[in-house]
Write a structure and sequence with these properties.
11 helices; 28% helix; 18 strands; alpha/beta; globular
């Protein structure tokens, strides 16, 4: 039975309010499934979307860290059955035919669609989604625990893989929010020395409890890392703050790697001379490979990369986004249905 309407967290207009509202539910078309949602994490990328002056469509249902059960199959769907557990990520669909799609880099497809940005997202009790890019989620993981892994976990693990560090090397992680506190756990699992950097003492305290070798206040973190470690082999910026990017750049040893994963409308001027003379590599990292997310789920089952979560009902979503904007959420807020 397909409900005619469902309750959802909706961005009403560009830079508009986020409201809980009733939205219609369509029957799944060819290649689509209807998912009855169990949980959905709230991500800073949702706030990034809400900050944009122009959007592909509004109003739009936000959310892209979704866990649910397949309720109805559209025609031609293979690989999923009614009742199967499914994970929804930011990546809704790709062309499937370009060079990037054909070489396992579909997350960079120029014709991709994204949940909560170009198509309605997962912050709703029922969601119609394309089946090809749904992920299988282990039944052993509680839905609320698994939800943040679909973006925060995937992105953090993908960025560490992008850094290509060897055990014993050092990484400085800037931003101890939903991504950062998971990145510490993955970095420790990979045998890296870990420095955690943030402006919040409570988040730094969490970082210490998760095994960070250093937990540093953001101001002058670059100088401190140069003094204590001679610089980091890699710095991963998990926030959109230009100040964090600046400190991350300063924290690197010669021939180090700077990786940025946070989204922001802010700009940062690249220090060209230091980049050239110190041989600094700068890379953007977006999500990860399908194998990376499968590994994230596997690690979570073994106890590595478990998110610190706070669960809430959907009607609290507007206030939760405001709390996130103010930096008041420790770990990840997850809406449960």
């Amino acid at each position: 039975m397909i409900p005619s309407h469902t309750t959802a967290a909706v961005l009403t207009a560009p830079r508009g309010t986020i409201a809980v509202a009733s939205v219609p539910v369509a029957a799944p078309g060819a290649g689509e499934v209807l998912v009855r949602m169990e949980a959905c994490g709230l991500c800073h990328s949702d706030l990034f979307v809400a900050s944009l002056e122009k959007l592909p469509r509004v109003p739009i249902v936000l959310g892209h860290e979704g866990i649910g059960r397949v309720e109805v199959l559209g025609s031609g769907v293979a690989g999923f059955a009614v009742g199967d557990r499914a994970g929804i990520t930011f990546l809704a669909s790709t062309c499937g035919a370009c060079e990037l799609c054909l070489t396992g880099r579909e997350r960079f497809c120029p014709r991709q669609l994204n949940f909560g940005y170009t198509v309605d997202g997962a912050l709703a009790a029922y969601v119609v989604v394309p089946a090809p890019l749904l992920f299988r989620v282990p039944d052993a993981l509680p839905a609320a625990d698994a939800a943040p892994l679909c973006c925060a976990g995937w992105t953090a693990y993908g960025a560490l893989r992008e850094a290509a560090l060897r055990p014993g090397q050092s990484v400085a992680l800037f931003g101890m929010g939903g991504l950062g506190h998971l990145a510490i756990q993955y970095a420790r699992h990979l045998g890296l020395r870990v420095a955690a950097v943030d402006v919040s003492e409570s988040k730094l305290e969490m970082a210490r409890s998760l095994g960070a070798d250093l937990a540093l206040a953001a101001e002058n973190a670059g100088r401190t890392l140069q003094k204590q470690w001679g610089g980091a082999d890699a710095a991963i910026v998990l926030t959109g703050s230009p100040a964090a990017i600046q400190q991350a750049f300063r924290s690197l040893k010669r021939t180090g790697t700077l990786i940025t994963s946070g989204l922001s409308t802010n700009q940062y001027e690249l220090p060209i001379v230091d980049t050239v003379l110190k041989g600094i590599s700068i890379r953007g990292s977006y999500l990860g490979t399908r194998a990376d997310l499968e590994e994230v789920f596997r690690l979570a089952q073994s106890g590595v990369g478990r998110a610190h979560i706070e669960t809430h009902p959907l009607d609290q979503a507007p206030e939760l986004f405001e709390m996130m904007r103010r930096g008041e959420i420790l770990g990840r807020a997850v809406v449960v249905f």
